[in-house]
Design brief:
The protein is 33% helix and 29% strand. It has 441 residues and is of the alpha+beta class. Bound molecules: glycyl-adenosine-5'-phosphate. The site of glycyl-adenosine-5'-phosphate has 18 residues, from strand 11, strand 14, strand 17 and helix 9.
Length: 441
């Protein structure tokens, strides 16, 4: 198999597991789908929620300098005029004169020749990626609004509210997790380039002379984060964006790239946005968006360091690094090697046989007690033990607990099976809490 075929195969295997085990489905699937949209099923949602909560804990609740925001997706159209998105948030679009297919001009090998039919291509033109809509019953220029293409602006426009409500001292940050929408010309690579996705962003406001130090701080925090969610160190890279490729308002940008099965691509971004956004909003709204330094009595517009994380790309990276095949006991198996802190299910509890009421009763008791403590615990009595292990391996459950006849008749011990090694240990029921407290850290 060529390298390219291998990569495609790996991606197909992952997509097929995601559907089979209920992580991610094509959006509107029964109607033939809608390109660039994806729906999360029970386990995909659990994985996504775990990543979200870890992010919020690390970047908001564990710190003393962050303020959470949950701004609306629809905003006054002036927001996007102020930021320049209404005019400039576009990608180069090119159409084939023969088959009429449209492509992103910077993503095809030859802008003269159609990658699909070989036909002659037209001239590239700029295509604005914001989804336009109208707010209210009248559809005219004054009612135009957009689905936000980034969560960032929901924070900048609340800067004054944060200052007035909490009186924070610089440096401090605003953090938000929420949906963003981009009418991508060529969505693709599973959820990697979607038209609707979630971002986890921070706008960290600083005095201008401290930008280098703060940039370095978040650079390290972002690497630590990739480690926290279990991404392999050797799959994460920094890519310094050159002066020509950087957004015009940014003085420095680093992309964190990741080895996805389809190649190395952007996972996250870290940018020094200067005072561009607050300055523009101040100019366009006519509202002063400055900061009073109480020591020097100087007023100035704070500068901003922006760590920006795609949530769906985080999920995809975690899924792709977790996907593992091995030969356990001479049989090929697939398992998801999730770090316990993101695993959708932490422990599964089985009765050895489902038609033996005394086993089921004991297993339910163990299940309920573990669930009270560890939350994401699943009871499973479907099919034989081998099938249950295979199912839990593919969901990525780190441990399975089986109640058998010896548990009841002999020693009050259960079998605890480790997902990664397949090893099985007998552990006393009363020792399970302590065991899992340590093992699931
Ligand atoms: N506020 C800055 C900003 O939005 P960006 O590089 O355009 O910067 C930030 O987007 C992150 O959002 C990306 O690093 C990526 O993780 C995610 N992202 C961007 N476009 C996406 C798309 N079409 N589908 C999924 N995630 C996307």
């Amino acid at each position: 198999m060529s390298k390219k075929d291998e990569k495609n195969q790996r991606m197909e295997d992952l997509i097929s597991l995601c559907k089979r085990r209920g992580f991610i489905f094509q959006g509107s699937e029964i109607y033939g789908g809608l390109a660039g949209t994806w729906d999360y099923g029970h386990f995909g949602l659990a994985l996504k929620n775990n990543i979200k909560s870890l992010w919020w804990k690390k970047f908001v609740t564990d710190r003393e300098d962050m303020y959470g925001i949950d701004a609306d997706i629809l905003m006054n159209q002036k927001v996007w005029q102020a930021t320049g998105h209404a005019e400039n948030f576009s990608d180069p679009l090119i159409e084939c004169k023969k088959c009429k297919k449209r492509f992103r001009a910077d993503k095809i090998p030859d802008v003269k020749k159609c990658p699909d039919c070989g036909g002659e291509m037209g001239e590239p033109k700029q295509f604005n990626m914001m989804f336009k809509t109208h707010v209210g019953a009248i559809e005219d220029a004054s009612s135009v609004s957009y689905l936000r293409p980034e969560t960032a602006q929901g924070m900048f426009v609340n800067y004054k509210n944060v200052i007035d409500a909490y009186h924070p001292k610089l440096p401090f940050g605003m953090a938000q997790i929420g949906k963003a929408f981009r009418n991508e010309i060529s969505p693709g690579d599973f959820t990697f380039r979607s038209r609707e996705f979630e971002q986890m962003e921070i706008e960290y406001l600083i005095k201008p002379d401290s930008w280098k130090e703060v940039f370095e701080h978040f650079r390290k925090e972002m690497f630590d984060w990739t480690n926290l969610i279990g991404l392999k160190k050797e799959h994460v890279y920094e890519h310094e964006i050159s002066d020509e490729d950087r957004a015009f308002y940014s003085k420095r940008t680093i992309d964190f790239e990741f080895d996805f099965p389809f190649g190395r691509e952007e996972l996250y971004g870290l940018a020094y946005r200067t005072d561009y956004d607050l300055k523009r909003h101040s100019d366009f709204s006519g509202i002063e968006l400055n900061y009073l330094d109480e020591e020097t009595k100087e007023r100035f517009i704070p500068h901003c360091i922006e760590p920006s994380f795609g949530l769906d790309r985080s999920v995809l990276a975690v899924l792709s690094d977790a996907y593992t095949e091995d030969n356990l006991g001479g049989e090929k198996r697939i398992f998801m090697k999730f770090s316990p802190n993101v695993a959708p299910v932490k422990i599964a509890v089985f009765p050895l046989l489902k038609n033996k009421p005394q086993l089921v009763e004991k297993a339910k008791e163990v299940y309920k007690n573990l669930k009270k403590e560890f939350g994401a615990v699943m009871f499973d009595d479907n099919g034989n033990i081998g099938k249950r292990y295979r199912r839990q391996d593919e969901i990525g459950t780190p441990y399975c607990v089986t109640v058998d006849f010896e548990t009841i008749e002999k020693d009050n011990m259960v079998t605890v099976r480790d997902r990664d090694t397949g090893t099985q240990d007998r552990i006393k029921i009363e020792d399970l809490f302590a065991f899992f407290k340590k093992a699931l850290q």
